[in-house]
Amino acid sequence: MAKKIPHRLYLTEEQMPTQWYNLRADMKEKPEPMLNPATGKPVEPQDLYPVFCEKLAHQELDDTTRFIDIPEEILEMYKNYRPSPLCRAYSLEKALGTPARIYFKFEGNNTSGSHKLNSAIAQAYYAKEQGLNGLTTETGAGQWGTALSEACCYFGMPLTVYMVKASYEQKPFRKSIMETFGASVISSPSHTTEAGRKILDANPGTLGSLGCAISEAVEKAVTTGGYKYVLGSVLNQVLLHQSVIGLESEKAMEILGEYPDIVIGCAGGGSNLGGLIAPFIRDKITGKADPRLVAVEPVSCPSLTRGRFVYDYCDTGKITPMAKMYTLGCTFAPSPIHAGGLRYHGMSPALSKLYHDGYMEAVAVGQTKVFEAATFFAKYEGILPAPESAHAIRAAIDEALKCKESGEAKTILFGLTGTGYFDMTAYNSFQEGSMSDYIPTDEELEKGFAELPTIPGIQE
Amino acid sequence: MAKKIPHRLYLTEEQMPTQWYNLRADMKEKPEPMLNPATGKPVEPQDLYPVFCEKLAHQELDDTTRFIDIPEEILEMYKNYRPSPLCRAYSLEKALGTPARIYFKFEGNNTSGSHKLNSAIAQAYYAKEQGLNGLTTETGAGQWGTALSEACCYFGMPLTVYMVKASYEQKPFRKSIMETFGASVISSPSHTTEAGRKILDANPGTLGSLGCAISEAVEKAVTTGGYKYVLGSVLNQVLLHQSVIGLESEKAMEILGEYPDIVIGCAGGGSNLGGLIAPFIRDKITGKADPRLVAVEPVSCPSLTRGRFVYDYCDTGKITPMAKMYTLGCTFAPSPIHAGGLRYHGMSPALSKLYHDGYMEAVAVGQTKVFEAATFFAKYEGILPAPESAHAIRAAIDEALKCKESGEAKTILFGLTGTGYFDMTAYNSFQEGSMSDYIPTDEELEKGFAELPTIPGIQE
């Protein structure tokens, strides 16, 4: 093609999206409604008010409004790090010897180091707009906690982060960065909540879990005046905010005269993937185009590729509403792989539905192959990816190598969600050859499925 | 002004500079020549061949060629992370309530985390072009070692990094990242060199020093077939490569219809500052404009503000040529502040001359005030700065506050050289209130000056 494609394309501020895109509005079959665990009835916005901001509760349940204006104050903070670049991986293509054209949307150029900031800003803003006194959240790997700390600091909103004790102790720098942004970081389980005390009494030496940290953060929010709880993935509102990733990608590709044959994203709770593929899913649903959309998950936590499409709790503590999604069961405890952000038992209900209905594919990859791809990518493209992001790199390289065999010059787009500066322990273990893949046995999965909830008349 | 100025302006690839600018060509009085320590005579290119690549030796001594073409292969790698953004600090301005317009050129959006990559790529490329077998270097804080590892990996050039033992032990992740890029990292002092063994014999428990690491790296280079030594600051060649920072800034400001009243950069060896101010120094020399150019150094290592403008060795080991520069004496041991990149006893000879001739100002700031500025900046601009870069932020904020008092709407441009992800220990110590400033006494400085070299007929 005649057009000279730059290595890195940045949209101008004027070209940035000013509305989020709600992909549920275009789904022919909507995701099943969330259910209130107490009544088994579909959740109404006011059921969510005790935990969530009102505006966010409405965004959560709104599956008909196609575009939602991004408030000016949010756009203002977005402009401090967005638009993010659409990158052409020329060096990687050359190193692979592939005829494929590889693009990636890079979300790591901000201090939080990942795409999580796109939703953190929105959630902190709505909390401020509602006049709240503060927010609580949990963090595992630390990307979400960092992003929310940054956003809350900007809007002057107090924040308490429950950080899984294992991370708290292994990643002291993640804690420091959150504290630099003024957040109060508590090792979970803690004595600050009933839930934490109960767990500590039963098992004083525990290193905590994401499920426990969620329970503490929710308890703290509902028992502290003017506090609400926020979450960085899985939820519909998060996918909505993350649609800026996909909208910018679509626009940038349009400027380049390109359209992806394959769109690839890593998938934990689905926040990045749902945002990246949003406009392309739309094209697929409306028949405008037919790109392949690929979710990449770790073999150790294979919710899409080996999970069940059923109603389940969103948290381990079974206090959240139930959602119909691909799940390994909320008590499934994934092995401690280095991509902590992908260790979630379920998957965004909207993405689950799209996968179920055949709009999306899924592959599972082992972490050794993932770090091999990460290191190769770093060598040629000069970006050190987060372990989570590297799952997408692995799949993109595999597709590019298939193109090399077939001679097809496909256009591949993948999401590079973040950087790996706080994950050097993982890179170390890869270099030392001491990294292993963890593939759960069928028996282990069965244990998780055995604890799936029963809901009279809906799921027996 | 009518023009809408974006938060972040990225030049297009076509607008990127294709030549480096050699500021010495425009200096009315050139910097004094480097002297060969054995003969006391000015250094010739061939004197440098045993240590440096030939092309780089010529760049080092060329003070007449104004523009030098950037080779295509270097431009290709530059395009993987350049152009870097020129940022308008709207949020910071608002928080300060200043009428000043604050711009910063952000060089931290690459995996090495700093501007060092601009010269690392050039040096690795010329090594490859000359068909060398490998390179050696030293690293203190780790930014230069990381940048060079990344560049050498890209060009397939083996690299050995001597890392000061104190850093090697305190910053294991810096080591990991270099190893991820294939570099061999050795704790210095080591048993791999005569220089290292001598120091270890005399003081087995030593934590090393930059001077010792330089000695080891140089020895390794000259005693290993086909190896040369490279350095990330101080040298003329480095300032030349770093001119891309200033050239891009100048171009971007021109597009915005702006011109800086004040240009501010942190100064250790001068690599960033020399690159940033290059085109503006030129305007000043030629009389086209008269911006204030400000070097910011730590009070703990005040080479410009309290040093002497004399001939001195560039290294502690006294094995390099002597250069006329502002220096505290090559045996001066600065306190272990957190901005390791600014702990250098001397200053780029070209910048020293410009400072001496009145083209540049200098201020010294204490690290507590620096981290206060860093934290404030992070809160509003969402970028966590490296401690080195934060020196420039401190000075920029001080200038902006002066504008607030005087009501002047000055245009301030500063260089944000890098990110602080590997410096969280420093941020911790600031938050805990345990950070102190170190101001050397006059007696301490006199000890350093006492060891300045004497050169018959030149410096008695």
* Number of structural domains of chain A: 2
Multimeric organization: homodimer
The CATH topology of the largest domain in chain A corresponds to Rossmann fold
Which structural class do the helices and strands of chain A define? Answer: alpha/beta
Pair with the most extensive interface?
A-B, 46 and 46 residues
- On the 0 to 100 scale, the average pLDDT of chain A is 95
What proportion of the residues of chain A is helical, as a percent range? Answer: 40-55%
Biggest sheet strand line-up of chain A? 1-4-5-15-10-11-14
Beta strand % of chain A? 15-25%
Q: State the major sheet of chain A.
A: 7 strands, mixed
CATH architecture grouping of the largest domain in chain A: 3-Layer(aba) Sandwich
Please state the overall shape of chain A, judged from the principal axes of the Cα atoms: globular
Q: What ranges of chain A have pLDDT less than 50 throughout 5 or more consecutive residues?
A: none
CA-to-CA gap between the ends of chain A? 57 Å
CATH class of the largest domain in chain A: Alpha Beta
InterPro entries (chains A, B): Trp_synth_b-like, Trp_synth_beta/beta-like, TrpB-like_PALP, TrpB-like_PALP_sf
Family (chains A, B): Belongs to the TrpB family.
Protein name (chains A, B): tryptophan synthase
GO molecular function (chains A, B): L-serine hydro-lyase (adding indole, L-tryptophan-forming) activity; pyridoxal phosphate binding; tryptophan synthase activity
Topology at a glance:
The structure is a homodimer of 460-residue chains.
Chain A: E1 8-9, E2 19-21, H1 45-48, H2 54-61, E3 67-69, H3 72-78, E4 86-88, H4 90-96, E5 101-106, H5 117-129, E6 134-139, H6 143-155, E7 159-164, H7 165-170, H8 172-180, E8 184-188, H9 194-202, H10 210-223, E9 227-229, H11 236-256, E10 262-266, H12 271-286, E11 292-298, H13 303-306, E12 308-313, E13 322-327, H14 349-356, E14 361-365, H15 367-381, H16 387-406, E15 411-416, H17 424-431, H18 442-450
Parallel strand pairs in A: 5-15, 6-7, 6-9, 7-8, 10-11, 10-15, 11-14
Antiparallel strand pairs in A: 1-4, 2-3, 4-5, 12-13
GO molecular function (chains A, B): L-serine hydro-lyase (adding indole, L-tryptophan-forming) activity; pyridoxal phosphate binding; tryptophan synthase activity
Domain Tryptophan synthase beta chain-like PALP (chains A, B): 80-418
Subunit structure (chains A, B): Tetramer of two alpha and two beta chains.
